């Protein structure tokens, strides 16, 4: 009897130990899988917390927007397929906001409707800021399908996912390129849209999809039409770091820094006989810090069943010559300048009338000194010669 009893006891002990062991293993296993430790907070609505999906958040403007949202206590999910953005920018944000439930990064392609739907099913978004796109006018004329796919078609995927998962607010990144070559300056939101390249057309088509859909839904929509974006985080945490192969396509500020760094021999000014004060083209340069401020204000003012369309610019045109002078002063480099004939497709003058956004969202550009904006961006460029790669 004694013998049997003790055998039984040890049997029970063994079973208990076995069960405890399995449970411990399960807990360890679950804790190590990322699906256990993070998504709970991202997948649940939480009172007082606004969860924003930032598409293209590894890119130049999207990363700056994510930083501002996180600073303002929003919960942020970045979706980006890193085709053009930088994982380094996401890492900077993760290091600044490591607390659970603040920031999550999901590597996915917005062209993949199934993947996008899964993301919307697993996360409780309150709003979407849709930045992800390809964004070079020159490239768009050479590879238009890439633009209609990654701008228009992907926007449709995002809106359909928002609709079927009840996400109620959209802030959309549009562009002054949707206006084409208006006859009258400054450009107001009422200026007719007649885009002249696939980039502008793809963005206009996205706007049209959004506008038509909004008539049949209660979605709150804000469409922001940016002018030329420059600058970077004044605290030097983020910068603009396009892929090296896109440098050729690049925008004027990138070219300015490349010239100052000696990556390219100098700057080429194309066209000195335009009908402007000094003969060079005139553009409206908006600092990225002001731009993301416009997004936060747009989000705060978004109303169900309403669409707000706003130009985001300074309202002041600067000539290319002025820009180059500011670039020389900001970098302290005597950049070589070459004067060439006009580039086809460039228009003389583009600048915004930003009075609507001031009146309705109480937003005004504050970083309006281009030399100062360039100086801030230059500091980051100088200390990140390989972008977000190894220094
Ligand atoms: N930079 C400007 O001067 C300017 C002016 C007007 C409008 N915009 C608009 O602002 C937005 C952001 O521009 P940016 O200058 O930050 O560009 P960017 O190239 O730095 O960022 C775009 C991001 O979107 C991501 N992306 C692209 N296709 C994707 C896809 N299929 N799936 C997932 N991610 C994808 C890229 O990886 C990249 O990180 C764009 O919509 C652009 O059209 C920019
Ligand atoms: C990003 O998405 C495009 C399709 O839009 C795809 O062709 C490309 O391979 C993707 N890149 C990465 C790194 O996932
Ligand atoms: C955009 O779309 C094309 C398909 O038209 C694809 O090949 C490409 O990889 C996509 N992504 C980018 C960033 O260009
Ligand atoms: C508008 O913005 C300014 C500057 O940020 C602020 O001082 C002012 O109180 C705002 N006005 C309203 C009506 O919100």
TrEMBL record:
EC number: 5.1.3.-
Requisite cofactors: NAD(+)
InterPro entries in UniProt: NAD(P)-bd_dom, NAD(P)-bd_dom_sf, UDP_G4E
Keywords from the named record: Carbohydrate metabolism, Isomerase, Membrane, NAD, Transmembrane, Transmembrane helix
Gene Ontology MF: a single term: UDP-glucose 4-epimerase activity
Any one biological process term the GO annotation gives: galactose metabolic process
Similarity section: Belongs to the NAD(P)-dependent epimerase/dehydratase family.
PANTHER family: UDP-ARABINOSE 4-EPIMERASE 3-RELATED (PTHR43725:SF50), UDP-GLUCOSE 4-EPIMERASE (PTHR43725)
Protein's name according to its UniProt entry: UDP-glucose 4-epimerase
